[in-house]
Design brief:
Helix content is 38%, strand content 34%. β9 and β10 form a beta hairpin.
C-alpha cells in the first residue's frame, strides 16, 4: 500500500469511528429526551385533573383551583370545596347539593329552603338575606338570594343559587369572610362557569 492509499484508509476509519460515536451519543441521549417528554405529558395530565369540570348531576361547574374537595355520596350527594382557612371555622367555600330524588325542590324553592337551613344552622347575629331574583350563570337561568351574618365574631357573606330550567336537583352555596375580595371574586367566577351537562 502506498502513502496515498494509507492516508485514505486512515481517513475512512476516522469517519466510521465518528459515525459510531455519534450513534452512541444519540442512543445515550434518547432516553433522557424521552423521559423529559414523558414528564411534560404527565405534568399536562396533572394540570388537566386540577382544572377539569365537576359533574353535578345534569350540570357541570369548574370549582376554584387549589380548593380541597370533601364529598358525601348518596341519593342527595353533598360536595364541598374549601379554600385556605383564615381562622378556625372560617374559610371560603363552595358547596353543592345534588339530589336524584324527584321530590327534591328546585329553583326558587330550593334556594329559599337552603337559606332557611343556613339561618338555623348557626347562632347568627345581624342576619340579613336579600329578596329572590333571577339571574343567568353560564347560560343557565337560576334563582338567587344573597345572605350575610356574624358568627363567633366573624362577618360572613354568601350567595345561594339553583337552576330554573326544570331539571331540579342542584343547589349551590358560596360563602366567605367579608372583606376578602380575592377569594370571594374567585367563588363568584366559579359560579359563572355553570353549564348544562347534556350527556346525563
Amino acid at each position: 500500500m502506498n502513502r496515498a492509499d494509507g492516508r485514505r484508509a486512515f481517513a475512512d476509519q476516522g469517519v466510521r469511528r465518528g459515525f459510531a460515536a455519534a450513534t452512541v451519543a444519540v442512543l445515550v441521549l434518547a432516553p433522557c429526551v424521552h423521559s423529559a417528554l414523558a414528564a411534560s405529558v404527565d405534568h399536562g395530565r396533572h394540570r388537566g385533573r386540577i382544572l377539569r369540570e365537576a359533574i353535578l348531576g345534569g350540570y357541570a361547574l369548574r370549582p376554584p383551583r387549589g380548593f380541597s374537595l370533601r364529598q358525601s355520596p348518596g341519593a342527595t350527594a353533598n360536595y364541598q370545596w374549601t379554600g385556605p382557612q383564615y381562622n378556625p371555622g372560617a374559610a371560603p367555600s363552595l358547596n353543592a347539593r345534588v339530589s336524584s330524588l324527584s321530590s327534591s325542590p328546585g329553583g326558587a324553592d330550593a334556594v329559599r329552603q337552603l337559606i332557611a337551613s343556613l339561618h338555623q344552622r348557626r347562632a347568627w347575629r345581624n342576619w340579613r338575606q336579600s329578596n329572590g331574583e333571577n339571574v343567568v350563570l353560564g347560560g343557565v337561568r337560576c334563582a338567587r338570594m344573597t345572605w350575610s351574618g356574624t358568627d363567633r365574631g366573624y362577618d360572613f357573606v354568601g350567595e345561594v343559587v339553583a337552576p330554573l330550567d326544570g331539571r331540579g336537583g342542584l343547589v349551590l352555596n358560596i360563602e366567605d369572610l367579608a372583606g376578602h375580595p380575592t377569594t370571594w371574586s374567585l367563588l363568584q367566577r366559579s359560579l359563572r362557569t355553570l353549564r348544562r351537562n347534556d350527556l346525563t
